[in-house]
Amino acid sequence: MSASQRSEPARPARSARSSRGVPGQPGAAPSASGHPDCPDGSGRPDSELLAALLDGMDAALCAFDAEGTVTHWNHEAERILGWTAAEAVGRKGLGGWAARPGDARDVEARLTEAMGATGRRVHEFALLTKDGGRVLVRTQSSGVPGADGRPAGVYCAFSEVHAQVDLERSIALSEALLDDASWNVVLVDADLRVAVVNANAAGALRTARKAAPGRPLGDFLDQGMEEVEAALQHVLAEGAPPAPTELWVTLRDADPDPADGFEGAEGVRYELLDDDEAVRGEGTDRGEAGAAARRRCWRSGFLRLASPLTEEPAPLGVAWIFQDVTEVKGQEQESARMRFRGNQLHRAARAAAECEDPMEAASVHLDFALAGFADHALIDLVLDPPPGAPADRIRLVRAAATPTGAPGPCPPVVPGGIPLAYPESHPALQAVERCGSVRASARRSDESGAVQWATARKWPEGAVHGLCAVLRSRGRTLGVVTFLRTSSRRAFDRTDATYAEDVAARVAASVDLAVRRP
């Protein structure tokens, strides 16, 4: 609260005086018993009520009559300067006791000017304390008119300059954070509803500054909302954490951005890799790119806000200050993923070199590739067409597979020579036909729909995402390797397709060696 706001209660002082004043001093107020407007009729003097009001102010206050005699002196003025009300009230001016003679003339001139002017006047004075020290104060002075409208005195509310500067600095900091800060700032009340947001935070939440106050955070956040509320409740209960916290959230009400690519026949969407190799996304969710755009990582700091006007701090809410580090975290995760996958390829090559059976070596490559990448893996080999059959008809036979119940190693199986009953639009057949990679995801996320989707493609139960990479060696197509993910993992992306092709190249070399063996 500024000094001007704190000085408002002093306006009735023109007809009353502090109980700390000298008895019998002119300007004493009449008693309440003789006041016709006294509502309670208690007989309590107005001067006692006024004294209690003045002494409860946070700002120091003194008042002068038209002759410059001190008529009021509250407790805060006594605290700052050391002079008690009994010592101050009744003195003529401030010179010689509360101000040096050289300063007193300027002070009295300023007060005389304020007495006859309209509105408040703000000045800075150097006053004397009782022990002889000097203190710089900032004052707000205003004239007090008499009953006839002529100036009857002046009151002066003041506080130490450094305290006022601290207050102004705090206000300026708050305004800067809520207007010009490059960080996102959200003030949340004790009920976890948005109170104030700055412009950057409004953009991060995809809303307008005027539309955010009063709304719960759940109107802006989807996934990650529980973590944010838990953090805010922790801050309200125990205070701010010692270090920033990284929170992953998904925003609501964001229109999914269309993925790069083009529409093919039957609504099947094709997408292009960086090397212009076509990757067919059968049933790929078009909102996948939009979902990725809505998922953000916010590096957050929290500050508990408490009222400074209460004896025991009462929580007003939490200041949530955060910065979007999604791009940085994505790069860190991608780097870690690339290092891990590179190490897996290296370890798989060394382990496969120790295998006498080439198909066992191919299985080893898949075992190492599955770690952190997929839940199931299959190897289907191209079966030569029988005599008289069309040469362009693709038939596949199973050569290796992980267990259908739970994820595990991918051992070779003895091919029975019976082709797999894949439908014509099966991703594995499409991969062989196109000599490229094909991604597929279930359109329905419910359990029954996912089961039907996996069953129709002859894949293990629970698979909702598939990635088929063709096996090519010495210019020939040997088969296809399929990686499958359950609903606990995200869909395959282009980076996954590149990694699957690296694994498929190593698997194809081992399969080619097995096919050439007598």
UniProtKB/TrEMBL annotation:
Residue ranges, annotated region (Disordered): 1-47
Pfam families according to UniProt: PAS, PAS_4
Q: Cite the PAS domain residue spans from the record.
A: 46-91
Under the heading InterPro entries, the entry gives:
GAF-like_dom_sf, PAS, PAS-like_dom_sf, PAS_4, PAS_fold
Residue spans of biased composition, Low complexity class = 1-20
Top-level taxonomic group: Bacteria
Gene3D superfamilies xref list: 3.30.450.40, PAS domain
Tell me what this protein is called.
Answer: PAS domain-containing protein
Organism of this sequence: Streptomyces rugosispiralis
